[in-house]
Amino acid sequence: MSEGPDKTPPQSVLQKPQQPAGAGQSILQKPKQSRLKKPGSEASAAGGAADVVFVLDRSESMAKIFDSVATWLAEFSQSAKREAPEALSLRFGFLGEDTSGFVHLAEWFVEDASRFSSAVSGLGLGHGDEVTLPAIDRAAGFPWLDGAHRCIVVLTDEPISGGFRPDWQREGAPQLKERLLELKIKLFVVAPDCSTFASFNGLPHFRYDRIKRRDDLFGRGLLEDLMSSVGKEVSHLSRLKAGAGKTSVTPIYDCTSVLGSFKDESV
């Protein structure tokens, strides 16, 4: 499907961005199948840590498949921890998103796959529409481990035009793209065809898997293929620059001003 016209012309509220610090790359793997490749000594020194954040659409339109996606992520985290090289510090985080608010781990990131698995399995649905670009912006501001390679994986069943105030979201897209570039965050998106998502193609580390139907988000081995391809990055870590220094940044999108009762909660 292609991105259609906006639902409602918005009144945009964006915050002035702060100059972010540098960052890095990602490591993931296909669960219970092919193993992560062990990096050489140079790669281990350059990228001994990886932080991975899953931005999860928890709007009501995800009702039929959300539990399946959450279960898969829980299983994936367990498998990835088992298969990761011993020298690799692998941490997981998530950000559940819709117009009712954001939900994330109280610790932001965890190495304990059981803790991540339990939290994501109990996340549940929200009660609003998608705010996917503000969610990516929020995830980019997570407290990444100094020197870690960074990855954000977005799973949604709607293009930006199908979410909340599309024009408001699109207005901040150029700033968001620049932020991801400067932080060197690798972005993976699984979503319907959408020109706004496609506009991130200029990032040096970007993958966009288009789905035609909601069920495709969890069908045809798409998630397994996605994670397997990210896992291959391990063999290229020596060519990448890891992040360093302070990564906290002022959000580009002011969700509280736009939504009023918007919450940012931890579990």
Concise structural overview:
With 267 residues, the protein is an alpha/beta fold. It has helices at 41-46, 66-83, 113-121, 132-140, 166-171, 173-183, 195-198, 222-231, 255-259; strands at residues 49-57, 89-98, 101-104, 149-155, 186-192, 206-211, 263-266. The model is unreliable at 5-12 and 16-47 (pLDDT under 50).
How does this structure look, described?
The protein is an alpha/beta fold. It has one domain: von Willebrand factor, type A domain (Rossmann fold). It is built from 9 helices and 7 strands; from the N terminus they run H-E-H-E-E-H-H-E-H-H-E-H-E-H-H-E. The protein has helices spanning 41-46, 66-83, 113-121, 132-140, 166-171, 173-183, 195-198, 222-231, 255-259, and strands at 49-57, 89-98, 101-104, 149-155, 186-192, 206-211, 263-266. The protein has a 7-stranded mixed β-sheet, with helices on both faces. Strand 5, helix 7 (195-198) and strand 6 (206-211) form a beta-alpha-beta unit. Helix 4 (132-140) runs parallel beside helix 6 (173-183). The longest helix has 18 residues, at 66-83. The relative contact order is 0.26. Residues 5-12 and 16-47 have low confidence and may be disordered.
What is the terminal-to-terminal distance?
A: 35 Å
At the fourth level of CATH, the homologous superfamily is von Willebrand factor, type A domain
SSE order, one letter for each helix or strand? HEHEEHHEHHEHEHHE
| Main sheet strand line-up | 6-5-4-1-2-3-7
Largest sheet: 7 strands, mixed
What CATH architecture would you give?
A: 3-Layer(aba) Sandwich
Rg over alpha carbons: 17 Å
**Count of individual beta strands:** 7
